[in-house]
Amino acid sequence: MKQNLIGALCAVAVMGGAFAQTPKKPAAKPAAKMAPAVEEKDAATLEFEKFRAEMEESNPAELFEMKGQEQWKTKRGPKNVSLAESCDLGQGIGKVEGAYVKMPRYFADADAVMDAERRIVWCMVEKQGFKFDDIAAKPFANANFTPDITNLVTYVAGHSRNMRIAVPLKDPKVRAAYETGKAMAAYRAGPYDFSCNTCHGSDGKRIRMQNLPNLTTAAGAMKGVQGWPGYRMTGGVMLTHQWRMGDCFRQQRFPEPKYASDAIAYLLTYMIGNANGQVYKGPGIKR
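The chain above was modelled as a monomer; its predicted structure follows.
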């Protein structure tokens, strides 16, 4: 039954033994502590990191963050209200400080576990009166267009800069979403019989010049979280985590998921939850 559920979501989202008593022996000398393994980086990775560090000093993401701040505070939509006076991201109406690093979370008013982007879309529809289908028609940026939702997510994310990831995994609803996301990440399907874990379930993998983080570990999961939303230099566009997850479906040759769907929220709950306790540095720069 569970296997069918996970498959449906992916597709529709378009020591236990006894201890024997033994004579006591003299305590062995503690082994010398080994230094933690240092990740080896090739010349291309080092050069890119140097370039990115220089770019971060004047990160173009800040421009989208500023636009998002304006849109958050402006009365808009058929109901002529602002998100600042109507939208609760889990910290209280209008409060954005620290909200991004505490999502996905369960929202009783929507009866759903939501990541930041999904929640903001919900607020735009329910509080401001925008139509979901209009937002979902063009949810991601291209060379000539940046949707409002991208600016808003970037603004909210900026207000969690240098804070620790704290997805509330003790909440039963969030834990259930996490476990479903974990199962989805391991689900193999499609023409290549791929899963998320095919690329992101173990250490030391890469595609061409791109190192692939192991999302099952805290450090690896944080690499998957860090820098999103991000300004992608290869296209000169600002993109969100929702976009990144959808593009992974495309690369697996899966049907691309519906925008702001349960499937993406569950996968983000799993990945971001695995990064709990790690410091989020805010909107960043991507290749």
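The mean pLDDT is 85.
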